[in-house]
Amino acid sequence: MRRASSVGPEHVLLAIAADPDAPAARILGEIGLDYAGIAWVLRAERARSLAVADVTPVVTGVLEAARSTAKPRWGASVRGLLRAADKSAVKSAVRVGAPGALERELVVGILRAELGTVPRMLALGGFDRRTLIQHLSAT
């Protein structure tokens, strides 16, 4: 999760949840997906995925990767999210001052994915993606 070579949807979700005062983060927090909750379920998902390959996760802090000299790049799924969030409806909502419109659209896009780390994380945490999307879209 940390020091990844590319930015994935889980990183975007964590970044949005990192500001508890932001509208999208407040909505996520209402449904149990605050920053700490997301980080915890992501760690559990990673441990579970490693266990499938019969690999035991290394205890945090025991193994440190060398500092990267390159900035992480946008992963393909995040590039798609950013393109989708660049639609005129979102631009209009941002223009008229709908707080958090872009972030909500990004979170909904992340939650719509049926494959990948975030859907596995949500399933492991007992979250129903459709219910989360409806909640975000209604607010």
Textual characterization of the structure:
With 139 residues, the protein is mostly helical. It contains 8 helices and 2 strands; from the N terminus they run E-H-H-H-E-H-H-H-H-H. A two-stranded parallel ribbon has the order 1-2. The chain starts with 5 loop residues before the first strand and ends with a helix.
Quick summary:
This protein has 139 residues and is mainly alpha-helical.
| Number of helical regions | 8
Helix content: 55-70%
Rounded mean pLDDT is 81
SSE pattern = EHHHEHHHHH
Largest sheet: 2 strands, parallel
Silhouette: globular
Kindly provide the radius of gyration, computed on alpha-carbon positions and rounded to a whole number of angstroms: 16 Å
Distance between the termini: 29 Å
What fraction of residues sit in β-strands? under 5%
Could you list some keywords that capture this structure?
139 residues, globular, two-stranded parallel sheet, mainly alpha, single chain, 2 strands
